[in-house]
Amino acid sequence: MLSSLREATKITPEEIEILCSWNGSQEEENQIENKSGYELLIANRAPYHFASNVNSLANKANGEFLLLINDDIILDPGSIDAGIICLENEPHAGLAGGRLRNPDGDLIHAGIVFDTRFSPYHQLDQLIPADDESVMGKNQIVPAVTGALIIIRRKDFLSLGLNENYKVCGEDVELCLDAKRKLALKVFYCPDMSGIHEYESTRSQSSNQKANTEDLSRIRMIYREFIEKASKEQLQEELFASIRESQAFRRIHSSQLREELVTWQEKYHYLQINRLINEQKISRLQKELSNLRSNSKH
After folding, report:
1. Cα–Cα 20 to 30 A to 74, which of 7, 102, 159, 283?
2. Tens-digit pLDDT profile for residues 147-187
3. ∠ CA 219-224-230 to the nearest 5 degrees?
4. Residue 2 to residue 91: CA distance in whole angstroms
5. Number of domains comprising the chain
6. Phi, psi at residue 68, to the nearest 5°?
7. CATH number, domain with residue 183
């Protein structure tokens, strides 16, 4: 992650600080190689808890923008600059999230949407390549984005903060909802803010970082409250996000059907050729058998 920062932005080293919340051993800390070209500070040493760790770092930060990023992400060139441009150019942009892929190139994040039970999920997760046309192009307003990669103005983050009552996850989604309902800002998905995410490579090592039903119940309740009080414009934005995902599913399904049709056509063609070959073999064998019978009579 540190090495990828060098190409992810053109901001000068004097304008960037990297603040890290560390919960590893001193021996592991000594093995950190900072190849970013920017100053790295272990600004918080505490047990892992995403919300409280990030809140602590944000209170110590000095920059105009905060980039929340997991240590298991490798950013693509220009990604940080793309996120800043999104915040500066998109009307009423409150925060921006990125387009993330797994090491195999499959999409794992392009914004978060909600199902009919008000549960959040990553749209098109591992269903398409990360460079599929469905998730490329211009910035899009989405219901929420993942806390693995978020850029937000520091003043806005400090006015909201992450809810530290979550045990495992959900605070990033609530942050997005708070930006909309408390600050009247919009949440954007920025395709050009991208990178590889070794999905949950850190959390998977901890037994207390599995899915939590209390967290899910909390975020369901908050999203329901948001929908009930949302403005017409906000409801339209939620609807359009779902429509875009539905259109993507339809295009993907149609493409899969076309591929299956081509496959079956090829199989049919192969069977037809084999049928003709076998008919010729049978015809030749019948002639040979007829000749043998004729010769045996003589």
Report:
1. 159
2. 999 999 999 999 999 999 999 999 999 999 999 999 999 99
3. 120
4. 31
5. 1
6. -90, 120
7. 3.90.550.60
